[in-house]
Write a structure and sequence with these properties.
Layout: H1 2-18, H2 40-62, H3 72-76, H4 84-101, H5 113-123, H6 126-139, E1 144-150, E2 156-162, E3 177-183, H7 190-193, H8 197-204, H9 210-221, H10 229-246, H11 251-269, H12 279-300, H13 305-328
Antiparallel strand pairs: 1-2, 1-3
Helix pairs in contact: 2-4, 6-8, 10-11, 10-13, 11-12, 12-13
The structure holds fe (ii) ion.
Length: about 325
Amino acid sequence: MKISKLALVSSLSAASFLSAQFKQTPLPYAYNALEGSIDAQTMEIHYTKHAAGYVANLNKAIAGTPMEKESLTAILAHVSKESPTVRNNAGGHYNHELFWTVLTPEKNTQPSEKLAKAITETFGSLEALKEKMSKAGADRFGSGWAWLVVTSDKKLAVTSTANQDNPLMDLAEVKGTPILGIDVWEHAYYLKYQNKRADYLTAFWNVANWNEVSKRYEMATKGKFDDWPALKTFHEVMSQTFHPSEEGNLQPIKTRVGEMVTKAKALQSSSIPPEFDKPAVKNSLANLVEATKNLERQIKKKTSDTEITKTLSNVHDTFHAVIGLCTADDKH
Ligand SMILES: [Fe+2]
């Protein structure tokens, strides 16, 4: 009897978990907060009906599949292999969650200094960027989105996608991390603007949230190891000693091996950013410390250059094993 109760409880909790994997984030302002540019009724229907529909249909479509355990961005990265239902609703959910955040009732928000500089360098001016995005939105035939993205080489680009596709999808023509998206589906503007999509696009800029876009730009351009200075410090001494050794110059490593051991130990005891904090990474860091100590012993004993070169190469491999472990789970 006890067992069957337990089974019932666990199957119920599993079912409730499965049926609500993705959720809408509460709208960070009232439906009428953007009046003048986007009317309350449009906002309410858009959020409570259209966007709510995408997330509900997404959860339904992925129920019982391995996608239940994946992040939304991970699903988007292999969406070309999934059904149109998954593609439309995973895109729909991601796009709208982003859209609400890049709108604000706050007046006159501005791009951060860093983003403003990148905009000027890429497009000439903020006005030129707005024009380019508005054009991308206006030219999108039927339904879709206009995007400002950060590409894999950390550059800004304007693009547009059809329906609920987005630049994170493996099938996107222009790939990148979206930092600003404008919904140009009729459901985003028709009640107030009817067929005048261009007027809606002009009004959009009055309620664009440049604080949020700047924050997203900062995240998208951040180096993977920016939060782990001890790793960068070790990498510096590694590359400044290893690369000369490849050309037969062992002087840098012979002079700096003590520093390398100290930095390897500092790396091992540093605070590891949560996304890399795994037993395998810790094991590799311990191996790295041992490898550098071994190298130091050899150099002190005046072991042959051939042996020193071999051991330094082993330190280098061990360091790259750490980096490999940190980047291996990117897709998850
Ligand atoms: Fe929409």
